């Protein structure tokens, strides 16, 4: 097999050249792609019906960073780790930075939590009680301080705010409270950092969510300032919504901040990205790679982050698998022959245009990815290598028993 | 029966007073409510599987205005009629105005059609070909001229623009073309008139729609000017979307222009408004009546319009029935005890707040509506009276055979 | 107010008689309606994002029976309580029966739990490992024994079985295992008892559920025997599914076993029944009351049970409110003039037929319900009375601290 | 390029062998796959908003057969053509058979039409009026006679029956009428032929459809006899339904009759199969190829048929493209390493099992398909060859003007 992929890559390279593609530019884009993993993706998670613990699962921020380090070691493209406060709170953030550095990773986006405390039963920024809103703002202040301590430049906001029943709250009043609190948070941001605003159709609120869709997130971002942008979580839309379209819309508005990668068949299932509809993921990347190839289209780099919750898969396997799936989608998207596509579009040649897209999608990019991974010094087949290793077994031995402060991570 | 409703009304009045409601204000709001009917709702319609003609169906704008006049005569609240150009084109708009006046109605919103002509196969404002966009803009110019001729102050825009397949068009380029064309149209508007921008998730385009949701419609409206507002068609959302929430959001943004009333269980079914989920319709009206009761919240009156497509119901029966259903929802919404509701909301008394809403909804407002209809000089029970009349039979005799220029109306 | 409802009832009675309805038969049907409440509905519940405890919440089966007793005392129509094993396991079921009797309630359906134990991580009846299936069957045996002990005649089956990812399991093998295990369970049933098979589209499994829809549940029931029937949970369908239609289909197949009442706007939200679309609930009851009025249509009485999960509402308030909503739907359904409806249907008079249904729905049945409650010796307004009482306050004092064995109830 | 694919095929063959797959068996299965095209897919179609004619579109059954012949000539796998009666009615079926034979195709499934005639406004088999049901049955008789004349062994049934509003009809009465009429039709079937029963969630009926889902179709099929089977149209499900699961369920019930291939993002969009979610199509084929590989699992061959409606794509291009997409899905499904998959499933190795499936899906099967096409004597790249040909231009010249009797085909 070892030789086969090299032969495949040679043939693929010829084929891409025959198609008129710039293989060097493609390789560069693949090699430059980075994807952040979430600390909470390495720890326990579950559904409301139960949480099934896994042997060797990370219990503390240090163990999560270890696992994130292993993921980065194998994939070569996951140098940063999103943290969730208070789940990942530390007494000494300098020490934490140092520990992360030992694992060859850095702290990435800081994710505040204003939904778990009993005070947030009826909301945080949307809460009717000014004291609860103030408490939430103080938590934001704390998170911004942590950003400075750990050198993070992204504050990533998700709210569970909403209601379960008609009448429960006044929509417009809640909107006005959200506007005020988001503006106040925006002012707390460390210099040169961004605030990403996530939206979600429903859950845990079952009648309305204050930030229900991209339109609301965009509206709030516009009211804050240009460093407030929209975060797209792939599992947070109504059935049937064309995500790649709204991604393009947000790009054009200069308000696409980043992604929470995952997949779903029904609701916010938090499954492995690309596991339900890999073509959709590819189409989203087709918008992203097109914009990234243009100069000056994007005011900031798009923050690619994973946000999943694996109940039946081994956590670290799932994370590495996800990185492979996301890389596959990106690599395929880079193979779209833009020139040919533009020509077909100009002629309303529907079949011709679709073929440009399909041709890229149908290409097996595994040899390309392997070739780039070799260049990056990563494992040629990260998931396979990991599964052959004894990492899980070793950690299962080392990480026995409960450790205080290990939270359940979902959003 | 004749006496019964008066006794019921007396009891209801007492009950409402006991609840602390201002019955006079409620009656006034019910009496002032107006709802526009669409010319195309009186003519033939169908699904892609076929159109089943009905005896006596209106074939021309004149016959449609006759039917709209009958609807207004019975309900007393439908004095205006939306027209669709070119389906309702006339040689002499003064004469048409006069004919409408004879039926005791006026021309309301003007609805351009940039989807039926073969040139629009691949779009209108989003079309890649500048000549098609220019043609669409010329049609807008024509419609604005008609607005002046007939004294209409609403240009109501719906676009079939979109694509069927990935790759077929460039989302961002289409967005930019739409922005330009909408801005150009905005400049054509007669003085003191408004432009309403409708959105729709899908159909007839099956992969993406250029104006897919309220967020896109709002975005374009903001780029045009303050007299550009969003039109909410109740059948144009993804499953699960909380419509009353986004209605409130648009109210707060001062961009809620109006409604196309109808209902759906699945897609854009264009069923009688209130026939699938009357509670949802009531909840939408609960947002509207709350805003209308506040001074200065709304920059313009909200345009209430019906847009339905009845394939199995008698057209005029369906229209009158719709008006009754919409009036019922509005009247019930007016019965929400706002003071009590605010108190429950302030205490996060979820059950208490929901009961305020449910109490209003569960009230039988038929006696109230009959009492107001009596005051307006309308039929006490418009649908029942119509069904007892020989209007349909007479028209079935009078309107035999085809008439040139009668279009199929759907959107 | 006290007098007002009696006057309203007098008028309503006259109106119903004018409509040609048999008021005595309607009153009898309303008075005979019974609805089972679930033990787990009185205890803590939540979403995967957290569980917010409520003061006074029941912690043990005894406290749950106390609360169920209070619900029955006020409503007069909730004499039975569904239990969940092992959450409600007791050392002495005779004593438990006695305790229930003191609260004036009885044990109703027995609900096994084959999803919470770690062994069930990959399923129960569908599990690849024969030992897990045997364990699940032993639990069924235990539940059937409990049925005998407590005099229950319903075994109510819900399975979390399913998979999260394509390939994870073989659909047909799982189906065959389910068939075998369900047949084995059927044979364990105590004499004269029934087995109800619930279905659910998704959650907690996110790719496939072994019992995904009514068609699968029916198929398995047919393979077991005539006392195996389908249980319809109102929140377990795909968006857009016409529930009243499949209810009618199951009635005609003589396989409608019962209901789990709740409501949802999105997924399995487990909201108060009738809170999202009360008209849909009414339409379901319109099928049920029609079948119940016919002799010999139903082989067994339909088991009406509540299954909800209230995170923001006071548990007991929510339960009583639910009973009121369900009674309202049933009472309205009884007001449909069947004779008039049949005539309109025979003539394809769509508007006429819909009016028969709408007329019943739009009637305010509160006075009828109050009159029947008076006759039953229940509270005239159960929810209002409960909210005025100090039950919650007293229990909040009495039920401080944790009690071992209190489970989290959701399905 | 010509040489490249051969090199790719050599490498692919080695890779498949390395994976332990039986390449000869795979090639045989690919070579034996056949897919029926529908006569109506070559003629005009549209949405309710309009039908945009295409130059050269087939207008008569003869022109449709010509186009079907061209499709078969290029792909080599489409030797049969489904017909729709009365759209494809002929005076002399022997002559029609002969004409088809000249195009190297045969008539396949016969599709009755009991929805277009005005008599069917309120249904066919479900209609309240016995005369309408008799008329529909007579049409079935006619279609069975045509089956004999043309040598077809499949009667393919789709019904538009349903209602638009609650109350419009009695669900159970309609069900009973359907049972009777389907049983009567079953008895009319020519010897050794099958009756396939299609289902659909909604459209053109918008409240309920008599055959709403697979469960209903299966139920009716069981009531008819073993040669009545279920037809799965990929666009006829509620959002979120796991189609591959119910396909497996139907296989296990020995009631999977065949497919109508297409795709959708929203409702019954009738888009090119595989254009929205090609992975889902592959997963469906993974169930089919597994069953086809087992002896005795399937009582009859599964009937693979296309049913699409192309409004913006060139009809014949779209048809050929569809065949390629379906072949791609089938070929990839054949690459699943069943033995490895079984082992992973037995160990609940979720990631391992998914990888077996994904590995097959991610393989580029184009060289395999080309190699098999070469063997079949078909075009190596059918769509590309067709687009380079002047077929469309020539037909556009030859097929000018209207021809009587050309119907609009959709279902």
Lay out the secondary structure.
4 copies of one chain form a homotetramer.
Chain A: H1 2-18, H2 23-32, E1 37-38, H3 61-75, E2 80-85, H4 93-102, E3 106-112, H5 130-150, E4 154-157, E5 162-163, H6 171-188, E6 194-198, E7 208-209, H7 214-224, E8 228-233, H8 243-252, E9 256-261, H9 278-293, E10 303-306, H10 315-334, H11 338-346, H12 350-362, H13 366-376, H14 382-388, H15 391-398
Parallel strand pairs in A: 1-2, 2-3, 4-6, 6-8, 8-9, 9-10
Antiparallel strand pairs in A: 5-7
Helix pairs in contact in A: 1-13, 2-10, 3-10, 5-6, 6-7, 8-9, 9-10, 10-12, 10-14, 11-12
Q: Return the string of H and E elements of chain A.
A: HHEHEHEHEEHEEHEHEHEHHHHHH
Mean pLDDT of chain A, as a whole number?
A: 95
Residues in β-strands, percent of chain A: 5-15%
CATH level-four homologous superfamily name of the domain at 34-305 and 312-318 in chain A: Divalent-metal-dependent TIM barrel enzymes
> How many extended strands of chain A?
10
CATH architecture of the domain at 34-305 and 312-318 in chain A: Alpha-Beta Barrel
- CATH fold assignment of the domain at 34-305 and 312-318 in chain A: TIM Barrel
Largest interface: A-B, 57 and 58 residues
Which stretches of chain A of 5+ consecutive residues score pLDDT under 50?
Answer: 405-411
Largest sheet of chain A: 5 strands, parallel
Principal-axes geometry of chain A comes out as: globular
Total helices of chain A: the number is 15
Radius of gyration of chain A: 21 Å
Specify the helix fraction band of chain A.
40-55%
């Amino acid at each position: 097999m070892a030789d086969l992929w090299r032969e495949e890559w040679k043939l693929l390279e010829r084929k891409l050249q025959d198609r008129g593609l710039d293989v060097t530019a493609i390789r560069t884009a693949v090699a430059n792609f980075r994807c952040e993993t979430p600390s909470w993706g390495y720890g326990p998670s579950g559904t409301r019906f139960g949480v099934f613990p896994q042997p060797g699962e990370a219990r503390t921020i240090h163990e999560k960073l270890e696992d994130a380090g292993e993921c980065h070691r194998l994939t070569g493209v996951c140098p940063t780790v999103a943290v969730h406060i208070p789940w990942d709170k530390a007494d000494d953030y300098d020490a934490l930075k140092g520990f992360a550095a030992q694992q060859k990773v850095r702290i990435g986006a800081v994710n505040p939590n204003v939904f778990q405390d009993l005070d947030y039963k009826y909301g945080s920024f949307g809460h009717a009680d000014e004291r609860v809103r103030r408490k939430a703002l103080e938590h934001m202040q704390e998170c911004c301080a942590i950003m400075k301590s750990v050198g993070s430049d992204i504050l990533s906001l998700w709210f569970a705010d909403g209601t379960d029943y008609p009448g429960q709250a006044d929509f417009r009043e809640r909107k006005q409270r959200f506007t005020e609190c988001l503006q106040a948070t925006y002012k707390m941001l460390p210099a040169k950092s961004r605030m990403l605003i996530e939206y979600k159709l429903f859950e845990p609120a079952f009648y309305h969510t204050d930030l229900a869709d991209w339109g609301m997130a965009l509206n709030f971002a516009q009211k804050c300032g240009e460093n407030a942008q929209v975060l797209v979580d792939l599992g947070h839309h109504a059935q049937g919504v064309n995500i790649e379209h709204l991604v393009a819309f947000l790009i054009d508005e200069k308000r696409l901040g980043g992604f929470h990668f995952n997949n779903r068949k029904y609701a916010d299932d938090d499954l492995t990205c690309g596991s339900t509809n890999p073509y959709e993921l590819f189409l989203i990347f087709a918008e992203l790679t097109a914009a990234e190839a243009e100069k000056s289209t994007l005011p900031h780099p798009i923050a690619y982050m994973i946000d999943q919750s694996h109940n039946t898969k081994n956590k670290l396997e799932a994370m590495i698998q996800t990185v492979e799936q996301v890389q596959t989608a990106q690599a395929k998207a880079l193979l779209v022959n833009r020139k040919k596509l533009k020509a077909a579009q100009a002629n309303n040649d529907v079949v011709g245009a679709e073929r440009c897209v399909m041709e890229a999608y149908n290409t097996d990019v595994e040899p390309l990815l392997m070739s780039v991974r070799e260049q990056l010094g990563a494992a040629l087949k990260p998931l396979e290598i990991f599964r052959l290793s004894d990492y899980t077994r070793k950690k299962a031995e080392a990480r026995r028993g409960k450790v205080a402060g290990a939270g359940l991570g979902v959003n």
